[in-house]
Design brief:
The protein is an alpha+beta fold. The chain has seven helices and eight strands; from the N terminus they run αβαββαβββββαααα. The strands form three sheets. A four-stranded antiparallel beta sheet has the order 3-2-4-5. A two-stranded antiparallel sheet has the order 1-8. The protein has a two-stranded antiparallel sheet with strand order 6-7. Helix 1 packs antiparallel against helix 4, helix 4 packs antiparallel against helix 5 and helix 5 packs antiparallel against helix 6.
Length: 281
């Protein structure tokens, strides 16, 4: 009886199992991080556009509505150099706010129209001086076919200051929003490239992170400065609770805004991630 060799080859030693991790071709972090970048980038673009459009619409509405410079009672900012001007004879002083003519509330436009249309006709003006109201009678003089009383008018100083703060904030807000739109576009492009595993996605995301952090800090600081400036202009009383809430909101906004860019910088600094990226195109 003879022994025959088995009809199947001997089993070879089992290959060691593949260890999963960032260096594996099957890693999913590029898709996860890329999708996150796309979502945040698209949201940043929409938020940037809204940050430009909404304040501009609000400013246009406020500038033409109640409380706007054209709709408030005018203030005397200068008197004619002529010593016998009608306003000086009536006792009107620089700083007086003219609230009404003949018992009717007036704006800058309506006051000028009434004075121009009333040469040599006495008008009773209600003025506010240092918080107190009084009536004065002034007779516009005929000059170049219109009535004049010899005053320079403007909206009250508090209103001018409030709109100056608002206009300055709008300029800086628009600049920050444009920078934010640019950064969001960079984040969106980096996310798309990252899903495709393109090496240039890393530089795009690193640049975005380096830009995003100072933008978040600057935006928070701008908001606090504008809020404090407006409070000073309005002479609003200090409310400790409101100040604490504003500071808390600024801190949380800073932490939330910087979370993703800080994570991106830390993640791409890992050696295992760098090793995988070197194999990308």
């Amino acid at each position: 009886m003879s022994l025959t060799a088995p009809d199947h080859p001997p089993m070879s030693p089992a290959a060691p199992p593949m260890q999963p991790g960032p260096t594996s071709d099957r890693s999913t972090w590029p898709s996860v991080l890329g999708t996150t970048a796309i979502i945040f980038g698209a949201g940043g673009l929409l938020l940037g556009v809204f940050s430009i459009v909404a304040p501009s619409v609000m400013e246009a509405f406020v500038s033409s509505g109640p409380g706007s410079p054209s709709e408030v009672s005018p203030q005397v900012i200068s008197l004619s150099s002529t010593t016998s001007s009608a306003a000086q004879e009536a006792g009107i002083l620089v700083g007086d706010v003219i609230e009404a003519v003949e018992g009717r509330a007036v704006t800058m436009e309506s006051l000028i129209e009434t004075i121009h249309a009333s040469p040599d006709s006495p008008l009773t003006l209600r003025i506010r001086r240092d918080g107190a109201r009084q009536d004065v009678v002034v007779t516009p003089r005929l000059v170049d076919d219109v009535g004049l009383i010899g005053v320079g008018l403007c909206c009250p100083e508090s209103v001018r200051a409030r709109f100056e703060v608002m206009n300055a904030w709008l300029v800086w807000n628009t600049l920050m929003a444009l920078l934010g739109i640019g950064a969001a576009g960079l984040l969106l492009a980096g996310g798309i490239l990252l899903i495709k595993r393109r090496a240039r996605a890393i530089n795009a995301l690193k640049i975005w992170a380096a830009l995003r952090i100072p933008l978040v800090v600057a935006s928070g600081a701008l908001g606090l400065v504008a809020q404090n400036a407006l409070s000073e202009v309005l002479d609003a009383p200090s409310v400790p609770f409101a100040e604490v809430m504003a500071a808390t909101g600024a801190v949380f906004g800073l932490l939330f805004g910087c979370a993703l860019p800080v994570f991106v910088l830390i993640w791409f600094a890992r050696e295992r991630v760098k090793t995988e990226i070197r194999r990308w195109t």
